[in-house]
Structures are given as structure tokens and as C-alpha cells.
Design brief:
membrane, mainly alpha, globular, Growth Hormone, Chain: A
């Protein structure tokens, strides 16, 4: 039975212990993310309205850019394990601070935006540190085989986080105060629990990874280091364009999805939390099956130069569905878009980043995984606001404005589809670029001793 499972998941017997431990770490962080996200989004939209997301998201992204820039200053100079422990400690302290604000009855316009922005920073920064650690541990061939399985840890954490949020909302019907109080306390507790879990995984292990030895850089110099690879390696230049354009489309899809839910629940925060939590719970179940049964096998048999085209194609179909039927299509479209992004594109992108030398990988990863998405969200919110402005002023029907911003997403996705297609022609040439040169990597089993 175990051998059949190992063959199906392509995991060697000696790899299970570390794989499960890393899955648990990623799952714990994702549990906190999902639990806080459901409560923050439900409270924010119910208190302030869906349209207010168009200023909240850009503010969150601007802070993410600053945080990612600060992270990039230290990522290639600090031991990955210590970095993850410090991040968990910082996020745990922030959740305790929000809990204190809640006890002092801070207004909803302050508490829920602050919780949402904190959640966004954790969503952007912690995965960067985690996948940098994973890339230090695993060689490129191992990454293609094991990263989809590691990603399933995030899916399990998402399953638990969304399920717990929905159950808490069901249990505390009519008591929004205690609901938020409990969630903030749980988030802080799980973060501090994660610090001890990281220590248990690595306190007897030695990670061998090169660290940058150059003098301390400014945020601008760090940005330029990542930009240098993006500009001069065709693979990463096109990949950045794919991430930016699909980020525009995902921003539109997410906004349209939340707007559709808000129409259904009619400004009831606990009902919103319940519906949103159960919706994401169903999504995670499907994502888990996809990652465990299909993603690893398909990625191991598919060349990366051909695989990046999948996300733009799925986004194109999802947007067309939303154009045909805005309400139902929006709910289903968000489902398909996030499935393709999380279950396929993210592990694919992480495995490709493993070809970047250790001493540069963290900064390149920040540029691709943080800056591209952040700038796409800011631009996307600006475009949606401009499209909705005539509708807010009463000069344009709301249904027509919806079709216009979905049309913008369709155009952005078409550009991303072109860039993903071009990757097929530059991939092999890009691997010969001197910026990707490095010494021979060792296997995980040579670098870690239990």
C-alpha cells in the first residue's frame, strides 16, 4: 500500500519525513491566512461595501512592495530557517496587536482594513521565505517532482482555515464581536506554534546554501539585482509579463466574485463569512484532489516551456463565462481561475525559479512573486475604478460597466497568452545565460542529516 502511494506521488521512502514536515509548515501558515482572510473580507465588505476594495487593495499592495523590498534586503543574507521563525513571530505579534485594538473597541473602518492589510503582507512575504527554503533544500529535478506535493500542504491548511471560519460563523450566529475576538486569538496562537514547529524540523539539520557576501544593499540596488535578471533573461522577462497580465485579470475576477457574493448576502457579515468560507472550502477540496492526483504527474511529464500557457487559457475561458452570465459565471470563473493559478501555475513557477543561483534567487523571486502581482493589482484597481466611475455618477448602467471591466480582463489575458506562447521559443536559450550559471547542486539528502 505504502509503495503504491510512493509510486503514485513519486516520493522516495527517505524523503517522506521532510516532505511531510514542510507540508505541515506551509499548511499552518495557510490556515492562519485563510482564517483571517474570511473574517477580514466579511467584516470589511459588510461594513464598508465592495467598492471600497478598490482603495484597500492598492494600499495593501503598496505596503507589500515596501515590505517585499525590505525582505529582499535580507533574504539572501539570512539563514532561511531563522528568517521564517522571525516572520512568524512578527505576524503573531501583529495579530495580538489587532486583538488589543478590538478589545478597546476600535471602529470597523480601522480594524477590518488593518486585518486585511496584515493578511495581505503575510500572504505575500511568508511564501517567499518558504519557497526560498524549499529551493535551498531540493535540486531542480526534485523540485519538479515534489513541489506540487508541498503545495498540497497549503491546500490542506486552506481547507482547515476556511472550514474553521465557516464553522465559527455558524456557531456564533448573531455574535460578530466574539467571532472576531476568537479568530484573532487563534491566528496569533498558530503563528507562535509555528515557531516551535520550525525548530523541531531543523534544529538537528544542516542546510547548505550559498548566501550573498556583497556589502549591504539599498532597496533600490536590491530591486535592480532582480530587475537585471528579468530584463536580460528572456524566459524571466516573458514570465514577468505573464504574471503582470494574468494578475490584472485575476484582480478583475476577484473583485467581480466578491461583488457577486455581496449581492447575495445583503451586508450580513456572519452570513458573508459563512457563505465565503464554505465556497472556499469546496474550492480547496477540488484543489487538493487536483494537486495530489494530477498536478505532480502532469508537471513531471510536461516541459516548463509548454506549461505556462495553461493559466492564460483557463482565465480566458473563465472570463468568457462571466461575460455570458455575470453572476453564476463570476462564481464559477473565480473557482477555475484560482484552481489554475494555485494548483498549476504556482508550483510550476517555483520549480523554474530553482534554476536561479542561490545568492540571487530570493531577490528574483521577490520581483516575480511580489512586485509583478502588486503592480498588477494597483493598475487593475485603478482601471476598474475608472470604468465604474460613470456608473457611480449615474451616467452608465451597472450591468454595462461590469461588461466593460470584464472586457479589460479579457484583453489583458490575451496579452498574457501571447507571452506564455513566446516562452516556448526562448526557454532553452535562456538557460545558457551567464546570470543563471552556478556550481553543481547537491541533492537534499546530501545537505540534510536527521
Amino acid at each position: 500500500m505504502l509503495k503504491r502511494l510512493e509510486q503514485g506521488l513519486k516520493v522516495q521512502p527517505q524523503e517522506w519525513r521532510l516532505v511531510l514536515a514542510l507540508m505541515g509548515l506551509l499548511g499552518l501558515n495557510t490556515l492562519v491566512l485563510e482564517l483571517a482572510d474570511v473574517v477580514a473580507m466579511a467584516g470589511f465588505i459588510s461594513s464598508l461595501g465592495t467598492e471600497q476594495l478598490l482603495w484597500l487593495w492598492p494600499v495593501g499592495m503598496l505596503l507589500t512592495i515596501v515590505a517585499a523590498g525590505s525582505y529582499a534586503l535580507i533574504v539572501d543574507r539570512t539563514e532561511r530557517v531563522k528568517l521564517i521563525q522571525r516572520l512568524l513571530a512578527g505576524f503573531g505579534a501583529c495579530y495580538l496587536g489587532l486583538l488589543a485594538l478590538f478589545w478597546f473597541k476600535a471602529p470597523a473602518w480601522l480594524l477590518y482594513p488593518a486585518l486585511s492589510i496584515l493578511n495581505e503582507q503575510q500572504y505575500a512575504i511568508f511564501p517567499l521565505a518558504f519557497w526560498a527554503l524549499a529551493n535551498d533544500i531540493y535540486a531542480t529535478s526534485e523540485a519538479k517532482r515534489l513541489f506540487p506535493l508541498l503545495g498540497a500542504g497549503a491546500t490542506i491548511g486552506s481547507l482547515l482555515g476556511n472550514g474553521l471560519a465557516a464553522l465559527i460563523a455558524t456557531w456564533m450566529v448573531g455574535n460578530d464581536h466574539d467571532n472576531t475576538n476568537l479568530v484573532l486569538g487563534l491566528c496569533a496562537g498558530f503563528c507562535f506554534l509555528g515557531i516551535g514547529f520550525v525548530w523541531l524540523i531543523f534544529h538537528q539539520s544542516e542546510l547548505r546554501a550559498r548566501q550573498s557576501k556583497s556589502e549591504r544593499e539599498s532597496i533600490r540596488a536590491t530591486f535592480n539585482t532582480g530587475l537585471d535578471v528579468i530584463r536580460h533573461v528572456p524566459l524571466f522577462r516573458l514570465l514577468a509579463l505573464v504574471l503582470f497580465t494574468t494578475g490584472l485579470a485575476l484582480t478583475v475576477i476577484e473583485f467581480h466574485f466578491l461583488r457577486s457574493i455581496d449581492q447575495i448576502v445583503a451586508a450580513d457579515p456572519l452570513r458573508f463569512q459563512q457563505l465565503y468560507g464554505f465556497y472556499k472550502l469546496g474550492f480547496v477540496l477540488v484543489l487538493l484532489l487536483f494537486q495530489w492526483l494530477l498536478a505532480g504527474r502532469l508537471l513531471s511529464k510536461t516541459s516548463p516551456k509548454q506549461a505556462f500557457i495553461a493559466l492564460p487559457i483557463v482565465l480566458l475561458l473563465c472570463i468568457l463565462g462571466a461575460l455570458a452570465q455575470p453572476l453564476i459565471g463570476g462564481l464559477i470563473g473565480r473557482f477555475g481561475a484560482r484552481l489554475a493559478q494555485t494548483g498549476w501555475d504556482e508550483p510550476l513557477r517555483k520549480s523554474v525559479q530553482s534554476i536561479v543561483p542561490d545568492e540571487r534567487r530570493g531577490r528574483v523571486s521577490v520581483f516575480l512573486d511580489s512586485y509583478c502581482y502588486s503592480f498588477a493589482t494597483i493598475v487593475g484597481c485603478g482601471v476598474i475604478s475608472l470604468i465604474l466611475l460613470p456608473s457611480w455618477l449615474g451616467g452608465l448602467a451597472a450591468s454595462l460597466s461590469t461588461l466593460l471591466y470584464l472586457g479589460f480582463a479579457l484583453l489583458a489575458t490575451a496579452v498574457g497568452l501571447w507571452a506564455a506562447w513566446r516562452i516556448r521559443h526562448v526557454y532553452d536559450k535562456s538557460l545558457l545565460n551567464w546570470r543563471l550559471s552556478r556550481s553543481r547542486r547537491r541533492s537534499v539528502l546530501d545537505g540534510i542529516e536527521f
